[in-house]
Amino acid sequence: FIVNLASADLLLSFTVLPFSATLEVLGYWVLGRIFCDIWAAVDVLCCTASILSLCAISIDRYIGVRYSLRYPTLVTRRKAILALLSVWVLSTVIPIGPLLGWKEPAPNDDKECGVTEEPFYALFSSLGSFYIPLAVILVM
């Protein structure tokens, strides 16, 4: 689970942060509308994968403490792989909406770029990427 968390964070640092830095330094987006949409989706994907990995770690540790004697039979290699696949599938579901059109109309200026602020998508993504994992981590 730790390697998965590190992978998500490394992917974020190599694919998202350099372009975020460019946007911050220049004050405008230089790479066009299509790459903006892809960049925003990868940003949400990596951040969601990181948060869901933390969620998986907290569930794993809870099981390890609460059911310490049965842990090896409860958390098998197959179940761990299934949990990691679930992290990445759920992390892919959340950012795919704006790529498929679930977003507000694109601004006329290609020099503007950001994650969509469409209200229902914002609610969906914040619940799935932050609030529900937060609740799981707090309960664990």
UniProtKB/TrEMBL annotation:
Keywords from the named record: Cell membrane, G-protein coupled receptor, Membrane, Receptor, Transducer, Transmembrane, Transmembrane helix
InterPro entries: GPCR_Rhodpsn (IPR000276), GPCR_Rhodpsn_7TM (IPR017452)
Tagged with keyword 4Fe-4S: no
Record keyword Membrane present: yes
Pfam families cross-referenced by the UniProt entry: 7tm_1
Cellular component terms per the entry's GO annotation: plasma membrane
One biological process term in Gene Ontology: adenylate cyclase-activating adrenergic receptor signaling pathway
SUPFAM superfamilies: Family A G protein-coupled receptor-like
Sequence intervals crossing the membrane: 12-32, 80-100, 120-139
Its membrane topology: Multi-pass membrane protein
Subcellular location(s) of the protein: Cell membrane
Taxonomy, superkingdom: Eukaryota
GO molecular function term, any single one: alpha1-adrenergic receptor activity
Domain G-protein coupled receptors family 1 profile: 1-140
PANTHER family given in the database record: ADRENERGIC RECEPTOR-RELATED G-PROTEIN COUPLED RECEPTOR, ALPHA-1B ADRENERGIC RECEPTOR
Similarity comment text for this entry: Belongs to the G-protein coupled receptor 1 family.
Protein name, UniProt field: Alpha-1B adrenergic receptor
Taxonomic path: Eukaryota, Metazoa, Chordata, Craniata, Vertebrata
Gene symbol of the encoding locus: ADRA1B
